[in-house]
Design a protein that fits this description.
This protein is of the alpha+beta class. It contains 8 helices and 12 strands. It has a 5-stranded mixed beta barrel with strand order 1-2-5-3-4. Strands 9-10-11-12 form a 4-stranded antiparallel beta sheet, with no helix packed on it.
């Protein structure tokens, strides 16, 4: 029986990024080898732009590409790089002038950033607004002021934080402005899964939306809780029988409330739980199923004798040890710690 081998078509690509921490786009290097850090001129759907190479020329399966590759025109020259820097220096002044025009037209919008293309052929203003804004008159005034093509783009709160940057509650640079390329789905369910306080000030970022980092460890919490004792489960611990009242995934432990009302913390890998004693008596270590002897009276169960009545007619084998009265057949529901996290 012959087996057909499918050879996947490989294409040459180069990864280009247009903004810091922005999305990486693939382009066709057209046989030229580019290295990381170089600036190249590429053809995009918005026109010709300059971008920085972040993925050197390499081969990639054609099935991994979502869109047709556009070509890399050429390597950016020194004159083009100097021109790009000169227009970059004008962006703050352009933002100030645009803000004056916005005030004149009394538009309900908040400007975030201005961005020139490398050759100054297009000037883009990013803004936020609670609703849709009619800025046609504003565009005409801006085109007359800057003598170039004007584009206004409305963005959301997360995109604003990504463009402006900042420091998060953790004290580090915002993830969205330093390394996140695409915003993932973050829900309040993730905060509940991680037992975080549902206080907006505690689980919201500087953008006012839910923290992106809620999704980082969510899958680990879900998987860990599937193998840990659930809240409400009864456990036999070295301190006695109790009910699980909370789970601590980072510490790999559970909080157990004993019959006395005391709450203790029990590691999930605790190897000295009562359930590990193979059915023995809690205080005298009598083995209910084997042939051991009672620790306090030395009676052998199989011989049917002893001072504490451990014979066939009573004692440990039939419902209680004569010295401690712990019953063996009416033990509460137990949880075998050896099954936790796959321990054998």
């Amino acid at each position: 029986m012959s087996s057909a081998t499918i050879v996947e078509n490989m294409v040459s690509i180069v990864g280009i990024r247009f903004r810091p921490a922005g999305r990486i786009y693939y382009f066709d290097p057209q046989g030229v080898s580019y290295t990381t850090g170089q600036y190249v001129i590429v053809e995009t759907v918005r026109g010709v732009e300059a971008g920085r190479v972040v993925i050197a020329s390499k081969k990639l399966a054609e099935s991994e590409l979502s869109d047709p590759l556009k070509p890399v025109v050429r390597l950016a020259s020194e004159d083009e790089l100097r021109m790009m820097l000169s227009f970059k220096a004008k962006e703050k002044d352009a933002l100030v002038q645009c803000a004056r025009h916005v005030d004149q037209h009394q538009l309900p919008m908040k400007l975030v950033e201005a961005e020139y293309t490398f050759d100054g052929s297009r000037l883009t203003f990013y803004f936020t607004a609670d609703e849709r804004v009619d800025f046609r008159a504003l565009v005409r005034d801006l085109a007359a002021t800057f003598r170039t093509r004007i584009e206004l783009r409305q963005i959301g709160a997360r995109d604003q934080a990504k463009l402006q940057g900042g420091v998060g509650p953790c004290g580090k640079t915002l993830c969205c402005s330093s390394w996140i390329t695409d915003f993932g789905v973050v829900s309040i369910k993730m905060a509940k899964e991680q037992d975080l306080p549902l206080n907006p000030s505690k689980i919201s970022g500087v953008c006012g939306r839910l923290l992106c980092c809620l999704s980082y460890e969510n899958e680990n919490y879900v998987q860990a809780k599937q193998t840990m004792p659930q809240v409400g489960t009864f456990l036999d611990t070295p301190s006695g029988t109790g009910r699980v009242v909370s789970i601590n995934v980072p510490k790999e432990s559970v909080e157990v409330m004993l019959e006395s009302g005391v709450i203790i913390q029990v590691p999930v890998n605790q190897q000295e739980l009562t359930s590990e004693r193979a059915g023995g008596c809690g205080s005298c270590s009598v083995n209910a199923g084997g042939g051991g002897s009672c620790g306090s009276c030395g009676a052998n169960k199989k011989k049917g004798g002893g001072s504490c009545g451990c014979g066939k007619g009573g004692g440990c084998g039939s419902g209680g040890c004569g010295s401690c009265g712990v019953k063996q057949k009416t033990t509460p529901q137990t949880y075998d710690p050896r099954t936790i996290f796959g321990q054998q």
